[in-house]
Amino acid sequence: MVDEAHAVFGTEEQVDIIMGTLSKALGSTGGFIAGSKLLIDYLRNKARSFIYTTALAPASCAAALAAIEIIEQNPNLIEKLRKNIQQFTHLPHASPIIPILIGDAKQTMEISNKLFDRGFFVSAIRPPTVPKGQSRLRITISAAHSEEEISKLLSVLRKIMPPYGPVVGYAVLMPGLFLLQHLLFLQSFHPIP
């Protein structure tokens, strides 16, 4: 089974059940499960989360469909997203969600606020969402970001982070794998020219 909430394709031929969201990348609400006819019939009749859930609003369905059509008509958006992710990380990522582990919840919030003051909305993920001592910034890269915006974010991060000392780690989300590389902050964000 694969939850495609943060993925950008690549593993669908290896699984029997795909769960996905119509929010996040598609900007709507709701989700879906794709699988064999036998599986879907079973879920329609036995899955309490389906049976007791209100159907999606027509506007949500229309928004998701329009987003899918935009993606289908503009296949370059996926490649642009991948390039933007690689520009930020210098690694071949499968996810546009890039957490930077800070550790301390208060420091994570301070950094998030400083980024906001400089024009960047970067969520501070803190307990109880994550375990105590594992607070992180959640950077979300999109195809709509320009190279200049990503470069500016990297530059601002380099300026903001030093007073907080080295970052606990640099986390990379990949389908089915959570890879944590313990790196110092400046190493994880490319050498400063």
Automatic annotation (TrEMBL):
UniProt cross-references to SUPFAM superfamilies, sorted A to Z? PLP-dependent transferases (SSF53383)
Q: Does the keyword Amino-acid biosynthesis apply?
A: no
In terms of InterPro entries, this protein maps to:
Aminotransferase_I/II_large, AON_synthase_class-II, PyrdxlP-dep_Trfase, PyrdxlP-dep_Trfase_major, PyrdxlP-dep_Trfase_small
Q: Which UniProt keywords apply?
A: Membrane, Transferase, Transmembrane, Transmembrane helix
Needed co-factor(s): pyridoxal 5'-phosphate
Q: Provide the leader sequence positions.
A: none
Task: Read off the Gene3D superfamilies from this record.
Answer: Aspartate Aminotransferase, domain 1, Type I PLP-dependent aspartate aminotransferase-like (Major domain)
According to the record, the segments passing through the membrane are 167-186
A molecular function annotated in GO for this UniProt entry is: pyridoxal phosphate binding
Highest taxon in the source lineage: Bacteria
Protein's name in the database: 8-amino-7-oxononanoate synthase
Which organism's genome codes for this protein? Answer: Candidatus Saganbacteria bacterium
Q: Where is the Aminotransferase class I/classII large domain?
A: 1-156
